[in-house]
Amino acid sequence: MKRPFDRSAQLASIESLEFDVLVIGGGATGLGIAVDAASRGYRTALVEAHDFAKATSSRSTKLVHGGVRYLAEWQFGLVTEALEERATLCQNAPHLVHDLAFVVPRYHWWEGPFYGAGLKLYDALAGRRNIGHSRSLSREETIAAIPNVKQDGLLGGVEYHDAQFDDARMALALARTAAAHGASIANRVRCIGFVKEGGQVIGAELRDEESGRVFKTRASAVINATGVFADELRRKDDPGCAASVEPSRGVHLVLSQEFLPGDHAIMVPHTDDGRVLFVIPWHGRTLVGTTDTDVKTVELEPRASDEDIGFILRNAGRYLAREPKREDILSVFAGLRPLARPQQGTESKKVSREHSIEVAQSGLVTVTGGKWTTYRRMADEVLEEAIEAVGLELRQCITETLPLHGYDPKAGIEAGLPDARRMYGTDRAQLDMIERADRFHAAPMHANLPLTPSEVIFAARHEMARSVEDVLARRTRSLLLDARASIEIAPETARLMARELGWTGAEAAASEAEFVEIARGYIPA
Questions:
Q1: 357 and 331, same structural domain?
Q2: Which of 41, 272, 280, 500 is 20 to 30 A from 201, alpha carbon to alpha carbon?
């Protein structure tokens, strides 16, 4: 049964119904599983303790890609699978995913044939689903594509193609797609334990984080898709289980468009730690990242270290004529990757992003690892394991050709729409309605941000936004685009949300204060 994407209605159904599949965790993996299960016709529920894509899944490098670096590690199967999924995402969500041309600048004679051959192999692995062919660029063509490229010693470049997306908006599209197929989905609902019979998990004990109410939900299959927090949940089932996740911190810097004024991205092939680094145009800004640092403590709001920031500035600066400085940073954000635990002694940058699926003796299914690009295939494999583990009737996966919420083939980058509007797809019509009702709702809320009051209102009414942070960090990307500017518009955002959600003055002030505290961590000291 399709219900409105309203938290109260969705939560009521989770409390009152029994399900075939209960997914715990509302990031890329969990939401992908919910879409797969619901579209197959299984009675499906998903709960997220915080907000959709609150952690890792909103803090990626914003790329849908095959993984160029895996070519050097001879992981051709992994690359081919990711390239196939890249094409599927471009097909099913053209409002969220688009082609992006990359340039690898050349400063040594051997780099031309070396990178050229590797990227031709990348093209070949993509086959007929390739989105653009690689080619060699002259010095003049490289400068035209990347006006801020460091020109001293520049010989030319190699161009290739991958895809770009908005991760948090993609997560929301998945949530709404699952709901459109009958799934019951709610944020701010925490799993605090499992319901068992005969040692088997047959449901979960859940707590509504807004009201504090505790209730139990029964399900044939329960899937743990909580990312870096997977082990915390596994221990609620089996306190003695071994760790399955090796978290790694990835950090990104956001700079003004002046550092990358063209429409091409840069792939930096040499960094201090042997990884690649990307300099990417995104939402009218320049996004630079990422790092890969082993961490021991799992946090919901990880922070970039001075070393992380220095690493990115130093390595990006080697390829940019105008080198970025700390004072140029508009926002810095960090996320923790839920890497499947590697063999002892393996560094995180050498660990494959392939996922791992575990079925416990209790029947609890846990998935770790993976990456955004292959979320759909991961979901298929996890659900197949869950179906077999609990004996559900097998039904065919249909997500390979399933359009995602907001699907709009006319919303491609060639349509000339600003990124902030293109991402809404067909939902732009509802934004237009809000703005026609009050022309002030169409005016930008800050000179340095594309956000309008209509987007805040829409997020509260139709996208299950429950806090100022939900709106400014994920429903829109204001926090990532300019942390200081987002703090300045927090009071007006809280006022608009209070009107929509019926907050008291104290509740509005608390949500604003909570966001400001978080946002300060996005401004480098």
A1: no
A2: 41
